[in-house]
Amino acid sequence: MYGQVVFTSKKIQAFLSIFISLTVLELSIAVSLYVPGIHQAFPISVRNALSKLYVERLAQHISLLPECAQFDPETFYTLKANGTCRFSNIEFETTYSINSAGLRDEEADLIAPTVIALGDSYTLGAGVEQNETFVAKLEALTGIKILNAGISSFGTEREYRLLKRLDLSKLETIIIQYSDNDFGENEAAIHPDGFNIRSRSEYERISAKHVRKTKYIPFKLVFYLIRGSYREFIKSGRERQITKDETRLQREVDNFLQIIGKIRQVAPSARYILTEFNGRGRARKSFLASLSEHFKNDRSVTVVPFEDHLPEEAYFIIDGHINRTGHELVARGLVPYILGNDPG
Model-level pTM? Predict the structure, then answer.
């Protein structure tokens, strides 16, 4: 009998030890995510793992929140027309005012804009207030009517579909902001089967799953951090057949150019400003360099790189999007191009 009690006591002690260790680790991960200054103190490998955890398990995506977005049969979703919603994540809390086209802009800007900005969450202004986006800043600096047509996660194909709905009667310039995660959508779009939009019920299912996934449950952080790290370890230990970067880049450029060709058919007389944003620590030069080479003799297209020389303080620490400082720098950099005083 005494031996059974001792054995049970040891099991309880072991359980408590594991429980306390996991609790301490969970709290440590939470502090490293919710206190950006501490996050920055970690080695880059740890920061990357924590940022991936944030993106995959904590960050809310506005396009999947039922209070902020809605199903769309041509683009899968837009923002919720004629509404207002609050959108927040660890480093920000912002308000969205949405016009009748499901865009984060004033209703008046839908009527005969001079400039339309197409893009994803960087153009939309994830993390900053509506008057702090580079589009709003650019409009204030130039006095020109500019429509913000950025929607989170849109690739170039859905930007093209959205553009066709808009008032182009006085359009002079189109800004197109690209991200490297546009690759899959654009690749599908040029395939003979095209880029197919899933059903309303599928959107609602994905939206509900996203809401569930981003809710907190005990020990969620430590579980997914360990699981993610293990998967990365296993992946790195395998021999994988990897497509050469140059091959993928060429496909990426070719896909983009094909869709740009469709956009230019919709707005043949417009000037085009092309740029790219991928997020904090993910700047690259190769894609825009290839576009610059392609369009070097086309005076209606200008390629403007920003991200390879934006400072660290232009980004949110954990989220990775450009913050109000970054939007201000981008807006000021675009002014001469919008006013026709190309500095190049």
Answer: 0.91
